Amino acid sequence: MSQVTVRLNGKPRAVQDGVTLLQLLSQLDVQPGRVVIEHNREIRRLEDFERTQVHGGDELELVYFVGGGSTGDDGEGNPLLIGGRTIGSRLIHGTGKFPSNAVLARCLEAAAPSMITAAIRRLELEGRRSELEGIDLRRYLLLPNTAGATTAEGAVRLARLARAAGFSDFIKVEVWGDDDTLLPDPRGTLEATEQLVKEGFVVMPYTSDDVMQAVRLYEAGAAAVMPGAAPIGTTLGLQNVLNLQLIVQKVGVPVIVDAGLGVPSEAARCLELGAAAVLVNTAIARAQDPPQMARAFREAVVAGRRAYLAGRAHIGVRAVASSPREGIPV
Length: 330
Prior knowledge:
Shape: elongated
CATH architecture of the largest domain: Alpha-Beta Barrel
Structural class: alpha/beta
Number of strands: 15
Helix content: 25-40%
Strand content: 15-25%
CATH superfamily of the largest domain: Aldolase class I
Largest sheet: 7 strands, mixed
Oligomer: single chain
Distance between the termini: 104 Å
């Protein structure tokens, strides 16, 4: 076979003309089951690899999941339902930024999440592999995200690649609108949500704490709405308590606080205010003792949910003694 040039993950690469995708993966020392291939903008599934040939000028994207539980309820008979699925833990665990795969594995054991996140990225052809290698993904419901997309079209494309990997129809939509804050682009997020709902995805869009944007996403068919507590990765904590309360009141799907939480007490606070769950990554991954912090967040969401169900005491402005005034021996 003659040599031809193709574009592989954005770079020119010489390959044999007519080589199949399966043969190409073998040459690259890539396991077929851990990668999704986009060939000339068409997604190729595992069963297509053996018969799909590569020719000069072709464009190939090899993507995989990188770091970006049991089912049941919260122990109070109030299961968290998203897209018809029961999510046992109200702590969704991120998988990026951890010091090592081993630390991530220990954190997942400590946190016992039902759902974990994963980003979709080009396969590193120079040796680096996914943070999720060595993690038994069968234990979790995988929530792929479209982090890095800056347009609705880009987010939809990433979502389709995630579905082709065969993990689930769940997708966390992220369309970044600003490089400094990584705050979401409202229009792009809404457009991507509308399109992916039409395609049968279980869409969970990341949004700001804008109340009306959350309502629009709910009306567009989002299975859950995910307002940020603060900009991604800042660990600043919940910045707008009122807007979170309003979002919880106005949307008829689970509200999951995503991004910016720093310590477990903030997660408990979100659950106390009526949020259905929280998504935590940086606060665990960058803690001095990540597994201990993971366990603390696990316990915090249980406490917060239990407090919400119990109902807080009336807030008053007049002091009321908890001990009776009668019978004081003075």
